[in-house]
Amino acid sequence: MNSRLALGTVQFGLPYGIANRTGQVSLREAAAILTCARAGGVETLDTAIAYGESEQRLGEIGVGGWQVISKLPPVPESNPDVSRWVRTAVDDSLRRLRTTGLSTLLLHDSSQLRAAHGETLFAALVALKDAGKVQKIGVSIYDPEELSDLSPQFRIDVVQAPFNLLDRRLATSGWMARLKDAGIEIHTRSAFLQGLLLLSAADRPVGFDRWRRLWDQVDGWFAEQTSTRSQACLGHVLSQTEIDRVVVGVDTAKQLQEILMSLDRMVTAAPDRLTSDDPDLINPSRWSKT
Asked: From CA 263, how far away is CA 268, in angstroms rounded?
């Protein structure tokens, strides 16, 4: 079970999450989190070039023996040589991580493959795979609709997408089953919706009051559980057997230890009524508008 988890490390490089009260995780705490994760059977780290100091810190702590996923930011529009830019970006990433290869390289923005340089960009990813610098290539998406423009032209190995108690579009759209049938690994993130799902009604920002009826049902379901909010959220995601990896970020080793200790008994799917397709709620990039 624990091997299905991937440790998200955005908090190592940036102050991240609506429920974050401590800011960026210190180097000492980051090392403690990795120690706890390894002892608990977690095998995969998820990072990105765009995650501030995350790659640098992981390199300082050491990533030997870990499967490391990283992500490429969008290619600058002014760049005349896409292939060279990709090679340089990945080499710099490996240097910061102090490793020779990645288990998976994802595009942080899948729309890059639909741009004029899309085929060149994809060819550069395939070349990195052929050279042995990365084992698998794929995309990180924000909406399953993005996949309609990618398949089957671009043969990818991995898709990372949001999936949580409220946001179940990957399943309801049919894409979860289609990806699984195609042999493509499914990784999900945002199990806690950047921490929003972990907040009590008293702590939830007033900007989210417009969904009060839904929150009343969500809070009622949480109250019925014998587990914590984080355990219930993660249990719901892990109940989807099609998902190969679930990216989970924590701010402390204690938080991770509590999650790991209870994984065997917390796999329970939440009822269908606790869901939303409203992008203002399920897409954190739109929260400033709430």
From this structure: 11
pLDDT digits (tens, 9 = 90+) for 104-153: 999 999 999 998 899 999 999 999 999 999 999 999 999 999 999 886 78
Which CA distances in Å does 198 have to 45, 95, 215, 228?
22, 36, 12, 9
pTM greater than 0.85 (yes/no):
yes
Q: If we measure between CA atoms, which residue out of 8, 19, 272, 50 comes closest to residue 160?
A: 8
List, for residues 29-60, the tens digit of each pLDDT value: 999 999 999 999 999 999 999 999 999 999 99
Q: Could you tell me which residues come within 8 angstroms of residue 189 by beta carbon, excluding any fewer than 6 positions away?
A: 8, 46, 160, 161, 162, 163, 246, 247
Q: pLDDT band at 1, cuts 50/70/90?
A: low
Short-list 91, 17, 99, 88, CA closest to 51: 17
Question: What pLDDT is attached to residue 77?
Answer: 83
Beta strand 102-107 pairing with 134-140? parallel
On the 0-12 / 13-18 / 19+ scale of CB atoms within 10 A, 21 is exposed
